[in-house]
Specification:
Helix 2 (60-89) packs across helix 4 and helix 3 crosses helix 4. The chain is globular. 32% of the residues are buried. The protein is mostly helical and 173 residues long. The protein has helices spanning 8-24, 60-89, 96-114, 118-136, 139-155, 160-167, and strands at 31-35, 44-46, 157-159. A three-stranded antiparallel sheet has the order 2-1-3. It is built from six helices and three strands.
Length: 173
């Protein structure tokens, strides 16, 4: 399992995993839309609220917490992308090399964006990965993911409202 998409179906399941990750982290409010036809690094469009440009009225701690929270959402989306493709679509385990490659990318991102240390990032990563591992191995979640990926492939693009509507079943699991 590699981080790059192997085909359109793989991309649909990756985007599905990202959308599920956002719902799991209660972050769908910063989602604007998703698109299969967008370049791989632009499949998710965020609302302006997601991008923190600074606010002199906020304390440094509040601003930093905001940045870390959005880093965690991004981390959850990337882990969700990988796990949905691996467990739901391909029905295989994520190999250590792929998991390590994802961690290395997130470690660099966490250092640059949040000024976190590697051990802090590793704790966040392991906690998120272990939780999402359980999520994507749940048969109910897998059923929702298959339906969502199928509909996404047919529609090509979904707004935040459509994503929330399609994934509302997750709230009942």
């Amino acid at each position: 399992m590699k981080l790059q998409y192997i085909d359109e179906n793989d991309k649909c399941y990756g985007i599905t995993g990202m959308a599920i990750g956002m719902v799991i982290w209660d972050a769908e409010n910063v989602l604007s839309s998703i698109s299969v036809d967008a370049p791989a690094d632009e499949v998710v469009e965020f609302t302006p609220d997601f991008y923190f440009s600074g606010n002199p009225g906020l304390s440094a701690k509040v601003a930093w917490n905001h940045i870390v929270q959005h880093f965690q959402v991004s981390m959850g989306m990337l882990i969700g992308n990988l796990l949905c493709r691996s467990y739901v679509l391909h029905k295989q385990q994520v190999d250590d090399a792929t998991r390590n490659e994802l961690f290395h990318y997130l470690d660099e991102e966490g250092k640059e964006v949040c000024s976190l240390e590697s051990d802090e990032i590793e704790r966040l990563f392991n906690k998120s990965y272990n939780y999402l591992y359980k999520v994507f191995n749940h048969t109910g979640v897998q059923s929702v993911a298959h339906d969502f990926a199928r509909d996404l492939k047919a529609q090509r693009r979904m707004s935040r409202g459509e994503v929330i509507e399609h994934l509302r079943a997750l709230r009942m699991l």
